[in-house]
Amino acid sequence: MGTIQRGARTFTLAVAAVVVASSGAHATDGYFLDGIGARSKALGGAGVADGRDATSAALNPAGIVHADNEVDLAASVFLPFREATIAGSTVESDRNAFLLPNVAINWKTIGNPYFDAVTLSLSGNGGMNTTYPASASIFGAGKAGVDLQQMLLTVAVAKKFGNVSVGVAPVAALQIFQANGLASFGGFSSDPSALTDRGKDHELGAGLRAGIEWAVLPTFRIGVAGSTPIWTNPFTRYKGLFADGGDFDIPANVQAGIAVDVSPAVTLLVDYRRIWFSETSAVGNPSTLLAPGSLGTANGPGFGWNDVDAIKAGIEWKYSPKLILRAGYSYNTQPINSRDVQLNILAPAVVQHHITGGFAYRWSDSLDLELAAVYAPREHVSGTALNPPGVPIDLSMEQFEVTAGFKYRFGETSASLK
């Protein structure tokens, strides 16, 4: 069996695992993943200037020129602990464990005049899940919560021009959303029949990611990558909930950074990321616009999220030809305002600090094993309710995550870990 056939068969099996296992809660710059794959997560999500594997396509498609013919498969066990304290009474969201997989395959295209590598990848972009028990009566309508899932399929191509690499990646998206227990908002909805308890709504979308990586010096690299908004079909089953008739485009974002080889064995990475949550009305419009019949209307109320800025830093130490050690840290600005705490009981994505670490071990010439861990300390945002007004509300979240993955090389291989 040829190189392409072996890789395609492995990717097909991995995709099946991703689709079967995908869940709807993620660790988070806002509701975006803070990193994709074991390497990225261990480095705090940094690495836009230092692509080294197929999973690089999800961050900076220019980085795939450095990858082998390989399949990268990883799965994270994510543990978010969400709480809302309302008038002194605390309730926890149920279902605190989620499985989050991703897969990518890279082919080197030696001799191709148009590009040097092509990568096919499938990964989560972000999401949120809350499930408050009926006994909590969060909104006075029994069991309440939301489940948002976003999955991205990308085909990335990249070309190297001397010390500059350029990559582009058209993106296809699948969004899944479900809301329950929001009937008490019926009087505020423009269409109460499309507000809550409508089951899962599946919608498709598309956008484009592109990036550049420039080796200014042999030991110093600069990278920039960004994504257009991913324009998706509206959630028609929930057009009485989300502004603009159920519209829920995935926001544009950009990430820029540097990578410095301080020695042949040690690389330092520092990145900056911005996500324009405010450009999606359902996410960014303030909840203070809430009025009778306003939910779902053009430019109607949303969750009131701010745009998010994040700083990410990581260090990678090639301890031996078989072992690489990694550590990182990420900080993001707070997306949720005090004025919007009532509606964000459904989406309390308030964490800001992420402490990370991990390693990669070369098991054989064709197989690497990777592990990463992330801890986000508990963060709080407090405010008061809009209806009834003045009721104190405190939102908080703490996160734990462990990611295990492997890299399988099915063609030309490297003698040691990169």
Short description:
The chain has one domain (3-409): Outer membrane protein transport protein (OMPP1/FadL/TodX) (Porin, Beta Barrel). Helix content is 8%, strand content 50%. It is built from 4 helices and 18 strands.
Description:
The protein has 418 residues and is mainly β. The protein has one domain: Outer membrane protein transport protein (OMPP1/FadL/TodX) (Porin, Beta Barrel). 8% of the residues lie in helices and 50% in strands. The longest helix has 19 residues, at 3-21. It is elongated and about 65 Å long. The relative contact order is 0.17.
Count the helices. How many? 4
- What spatial order of strands do you see in the largest sheet? 3-5-6-7-8-9-10-12-13-14-15-16-17-18
For the sheet with most strands, the description reads: 14 strands, antiparallel, barrel
The CATH superfamily bears the name Outer membrane protein transport protein (OMPP1/FadL/TodX)
Total number of strands: 18
Low-confidence stretches: 10-22
CATH C-level category: Mainly Beta
Terminal residue distance? 27 Å
- Element string (H = helix, E = strand): HEEHEEEEEEEEEHEEHEEEEE
Strand proportion: over 45%
**Count of separate structural domains:** 1
Shape assignment? elongated
The CATH architecture is: Beta Barrel
